[in-house]
Amino acid sequence: MGCSGCRVRFNFGKALSKVSVFFTMVLIFTYFFYCLTGLCDSAPRTLYSQRASDSDYDILEDLRPSPRLLLDASERNLTASADAQRVYAPAEPQQSASDGEKGSAQSSGIPVSNTFGTKRFPQAIIIGVKKGGTRALLEFLRIHPDVRAFGAEPHFFDRFYDKGLEWYRNLMPRTLDGQITMEKTPSYFVTKEAPGRVCTMNCQTKLIVVVRDPVTRAVSDYTQTLTKNPGLPSFQSLALKNVSTGLIDTTWSAVRIGLYAKHLENWLQHFPLSHFLFVSGERLVSDPAGEMGRVQDFLGLKRVVSDKHFYFNQTKGFPCLKKPEGSSKPRCLGKSKGRPHPQIPAEVLQRLRDFYRPFNHRFYEMSGQNFGWD
Ligand SMILES: Nc1ncnc2c1ncn2[C@@H]1O[C@H](COP(=O)(O)OS(=O)(=O)O)[C@@H](OP(=O)(O)O)[C@H]1O
């Protein structure tokens, strides 16, 4: 009697250990299968990897009132401003691809592929404009399950073109059929050679330009430079050639970038207008879901990103994401986005507004959209 009780206990113990071995194996196999399908690529990025990859230091910031989280946010932004001091050089291909993959890409010229994911050239690029809201747009798009994007700015078509197209493709994340590969580099819009180079890669590429009132954009651009270089001369001394005549200095990049019609003319020599989507930087702030609807339609995507993904953060003064890619916590863009602008004399702003008016109107005609900047 006593002995049969022992056997029952013994058998129960054995069964229990078999069950736990079975569940451990199931867990291990699930994990390996998950990684084999390339889904590990889209696993939440660690803070470290975000730091390493985001060239323009747009680390998403948690603005909920937890002291620890707020400390994390300021630490992240220290890293951010340090990053701002150096020119970004994207990771070499070998850092993002195995040697075997590199070999096949270089020798055959066919898509670099494992069983379930393929590194493809971007089918859509956010080409501009600097300080238009390009980071917000990319981060909003990244919550769409059919969008995979390179997190940093690769600067391939302006700075690193001599590295070759395979280098560029190797930077891209793997995508499954039906997913879109994207990147954003706002300086492409003002780079003379960029349209021809993008067309050499693929003339069917979809091009997204986030545009913002060129006067506010210039002040935003100046604010960013001022943050890096506090000894910078005043905005007015850089924007005006001569203060008494009020002549605008178009050689200053902060002014020149805002001549959207001129830059668009250059792009239209290589791409038809139908390949462009112009996103309003202002509406991206006031109605992010509405603007995202247009973007998803343009990209041929199901309208997944909607108003339920956004909330307006009073502290930040901008829309933020309830659940960004790879996180279940609400996040805003980092402190380098939405910085307070310095006070610029009203007559200088008015002078700039007058200067831009004819260029803005020309841009409205060319794009078929009135952005209402004046
Ligand atoms: N949701 C949200 N959160 C924070 N900031 C937002 C957002 N949407 C648009 N913006 C505006 O984006 C401006 C920065 O533009 P970019 O991301 O294109 O800048 S950059 O060229 O990549 O440096 C940035 O410019 P500043 O306000 O001058 O800092 C913002 O006004």
From TrEMBL:
InterPro entries: NST/OST, P-loop_NTPase, Sulfotransferase_dom. Its main location: membrane. The chain crosses the membrane at residues 21-39. It is a single-pass type II membrane protein. Residues 93-114 have a biased composition (Polar residues). One of its GO terms (molecular function) is [heparan sulfate]-glucosamine 3-sulfotransferase activity. The active site is at 131 (for sulfotransferase activity). 3'-phosphoadenylyl sulfate binds at residues 131-135, 212, 220, 337-341. This is Sulfotransferase. The gene is hs3st6.
